[in-house]
Automatic annotation (TrEMBL):
Pathway(s) of this molecule: Mycotoxin biosynthesis
InterPro entries: UstYa-like (IPR021765)
The organism of origin for this protein: Microthyrium microscopicum
The keyword tRNA-binding is assigned to this record: no
Keywords annotated in UniProt: Membrane, Transmembrane, Transmembrane helix
Keyword Transmembrane helix: yes
A Pfam family per the record: UstYa
Protein name (record): Tat pathway signal sequence
Membrane-spanning ranges: 38-56
Family: Belongs to the ustYa family.
GO terms classed as biological process: mycotoxin biosynthetic process
Highest taxon in the source lineage: Eukaryota
Length: 273
């Protein structure tokens, strides 16, 4: 039957069929070649993307100061302590974290105070002369030592936040307030303590603006208030604080800083000679 049909085709049509077969064979050839080239490129791009991804995540994890972490263009003696991780924080309005107050009476406890102190009470750090020479500002040699003194801003910021936290509970932290609260209970807003609070607020403003955290807060329906409200859970990329604290402990200046009063020449600076 097919033979008969074939034979029935006029010559011209048979020719056309042959030409079309030739063309489609050629197209098939090109298609095969294109698709194999496509596969090769896909493979190569996949390899390149994977390798770059691995390199980038390695750089981000290790926070290499030389390449990668663009937030570390200036020298820090603690750059090796930077490591990033994605961290999820729970709701902290109704659910108290250990840094917050007693849920029953709304006041800080001794445990609260200890949590705060443990964040930064090793705050003054020693650095070698080599590191001290690379700081963004000149610093001073420690007494009876060839090491120099510095402090990581993160520890100073936490100290500031703790000072402000305590200022909300003057009854509990009375001894911190002899300068700020007058004998008649009124406040002295020109006292050194008041200036310390003002400094701390501005210091935290600087840090918060400097870091420009662009992680996001969502709204979710609150069944008690019957409206959507900001959802206080958070997921964001954080520097691992334990690593920074470890660095702080390893570099802690163990003795209280008691400088002997004297002329400037009595103190050696890291940028001297
Ligand atoms: C929390 O407050 C309640 C009520 O004042 C008190 O009984 C309890 O001891 C407090 N807890 C701590 C850890 O201070
Ligand atoms: C909290 O600490 C203070 C000062 O160290 C101490 O006098 C007080 O007894 C402590 N309170 C509790 C409930 O342990
Ligand atoms: C407030 O503090 C300043 C600075 O310590 C002091 O000079 C001033 O006398 C104080 N004012 C009062 C009313 O105590």
């Amino acid at each position: 039957m097919s033979l008969k049909t074939y034979a029935a085709l006029p010559d011209e049509e048979a020719n056309n069929v042959r030409i079309e077969k030739g063309v489609s064979a050629h197209i098939e050839e090109v298609r095969k070649w294109t698709s194999s080239r496509f596969l090769h490129f896909t493979f190569l791009y996949t390899v390149i993307i994977c390798l770059s991804g691995m390199l980038l995540s390695n750089v981000l994890r290790n926070g290499s100061p030389m390449c990668g972490d663009i937030s570390q263009q200036l020298f820090s003696p603690a750059s090796s302590a930077i490591s990033y991780e994605i961290t999820t924080f729970g709701e902290n309005f109704y659910q108290k974290t250990p840094y917050m107050c007693n849920v029953t009476d709304g006041l800080p406890t001794n445990a609260t105070d200890k949590k705060w102190i443990d964040l930064y009470d090793f705050g003054n750090s020693w650095v070698t002369k080599d590191d001290a020479r690379q700081l963004t500002l000149d610093t001073v040699q420690l007494p009876n030592s060839d090491l120099y003194v510095t402090q990581l801003t993160v520890f100073h910021d936490l100290h500031c936040l703790n000072v402000l936290r305590k200022s909300l509970y003057p009854d509990r932290y009375m001894s911190d307030y002899d300068d700020f609260i007058n004998k008649d209970g009124s406040r002295n807003y020109t006292s050194v303590d008041a200036q310390h609070y003002d400094h701390c607020i501005d210091n935290l403003r600087r840090s918060i603006m400097c870091h420009g955290d662009v992680s996001t807060i969502s709204w979710s329906y609150n069944k008690y208030r019957r409206v959507p409200l900001p959802d206080l859970r958070l997921t964001k990329t954080c520097r691992n604080y334990d690593k920074l604290r470890e660095w702080g402990h390893e570099h802690e200046v163990m003795t209280a800083l008691k400088w002997k009063h004297g002329p400037e020449s009595a103190f050696k600076h890291s940028w001297d000679d």
